[in-house]
Design a protein that fits this description.
- The chain is mainly alpha-helical.
- The chain has a domain of 46 residues.
- It has two helices and no strands.
- The protein starts with 17 loop residues before the first helix and ends with a helix.
- The relative contact order is 0.08.
């Protein structure tokens, strides 16, 4: 699968999605690869939890400032 927007890019992105990390772990069957995959999945979960917590905090702050529920 070729992405049109990557055809002119000299360097590919160094970011992975949760699904990409999961697919990679399905291909690599070594103990180290499985351990790293679990670590990456836990990191994604922690980032999502932190983003949700910050969103909640931001929503509460905006409610206090404006007096309206968003």
């Amino acid at each position: 699968m070729t992405f049109q927007w990557l055809q002119g890019v000299k360097y590919h992105p160094y970011a992975y999605s949760r699904e990409g990390a999961n697919m990679l772990s399905a291909v690599l069957h070594t103990a180290v690869a499985i351990d790293r995959s679990v670590f990456i999945m836990r990191a994604f979960s922690a980032m999502e939890a932190e983003a949700a917590r910050r969103h909640q905090t931001d929503m509460k702050s905006s409610e206090q400032i404006t007096g309206e529920q968003v």
